[in-house]
Design goal:
Length: 339
């Protein structure tokens, strides 16, 4: 059994076979190997290309940008996604714009990877889901790992196949989740769709032999796993059949304000959409997905809804944190109301 954490670590070790790849981060040297151990073993195997730094996320991003401009393929580890706000200026005002500002004469092939999310009792400044702050930045690709395919391979491809910057999200609860095998997914039919000019696949899951879907669920990261559990329970306990659409690429979305093709195909059958995310409710990923769905199906959606965390800090108390973040029971209740 391979966990998501092990797969990411394996992907980094595979990428380091190329001497252009460097890792920059705080506390990434062995034996610690990073706060969540994704970088473990790299500094031992490649001591000249793993750079531990002072506590300066902006400095990390700035140095990595310079390395990328000089032809290297740097990977920046931000210890907690909450601290990605400290690199916002570098990402938004520099790294994502250099290619356009210089007429395509330069490239910034840089990957920023960071853990996001709660459910571990780390409190309001170490448990947030903040990728929505970066979703509308032109020139920046945002990817979210999941357990349906190898996240280490997705990370490796982001390092080498993207000549622009990538913001790579790893939900903390995913780290110890096993990669789902064919046996794990034997109850499902799965379709893969890769957007044009991209390499991150969208998975559509439906139960084998199920009736036409009454509802389309869409979620990413760890929330996709909770949605998959809810999809099974909705079918077997409530006879509500759903399709689940799981994107690995959160941004850019389809060009010209269009809807993701896999999501559009599912909605053409169900007419109902529930977007699920762990981040706070207002102005989130789900809001954009629903807006595009409404444009794609003018007057054609029976109903649509979003499920997300409340617009409030994540509590430090574990029971309060569990109550604040959407879970399987919330998905079940919302889906039943919609259908």
């Amino acid at each position: 059994m391979t966990s998501v954490l092990q797969a990411l670590n394996r992907g980094l070790h595979a990428a380091f076979q190329d001497p252009r790849v460097h890792l920059l981060g705080e506390d990434v040297l062995d034996p610690y190997g990073g706060a969540f151990k994704v970088s473990q073993g790299l500094s031992t195997a490649y001591p000249e290309r793993v750079w531990t730094s002072p506590v300066s996320e902006a400095g990390l991003a700035g140095v990595a940008a310079g390395m990328a401009l000089r032809g290297l393929r740097p990977v920046v580890e931000i210890m907690f996604g909450d601290f990605s706000t400290l690199i916002a200026d570098q990402i938004i005002n520099s790294i994502s714009k250099f290619g356009s500002m210089y007429g395509g004469a330069v490239h910034v092939p840089l990957v920023v990877r960071t853990p996001m999310g709660g459910r571990r009792g780390y409190g309001p400044t170490h448990s947030q889901t903040l990728e929505k702050l970066f979703l509308g930045v032109p020139g920046l690709r945002v990817l979210a790992a999941n357990s349906l395919s190898d996240p280490g391979e997705l990370l490796r491809r982001a390092i080498f196949e993207d000549d622009g910057p990538v913001f790579f999200i790893e939900n903390k609860l995913l780290y110890l989740q096993p990669l789902l095998t064919t046996e794990d997914l034997q109850d499902f039919e799965i379709e893969l769709h890769t957007p044009p000019a991209a390499y991150a696949a969208t998975h559509t899951l439906r139960l084998r032999g199920a009736s036409a879907p009454a509802l389309t669920l869409t979620a990413y990261g760890y929330m996709a796993e909770l949605a998959r559990q809810a999809q099974l329970r909705l079918a077997f306990e409530h006879e509500i059949f759903c399709e689940l659409v799981v994107p690995a690429q959160l941004a850019p979305l389809a060009a010209g304000g269009e809807l993701d093709a896999a999501l559009a195909a599912s909605l053409s059958k169900s007419g109902r959409l529930l977007a699920i995310e762990e981040g706070s409710y207002t102005l989130g990923w789900g809001a954009e997905v629903l807006a595009r769905a409404a444009q794609a199906f003018p007057g054609g959606l029976k109903t649509a809804a979003r499920l997300a965390a409340p617009d409030a800090p994540i509590p430090a108390s574990r029971p309060l944190e569990e109550a604040a973040l959407p879970d399987v029971e919330d998905i079940l209740a919302t889906a039943q109301r919609m259908v």
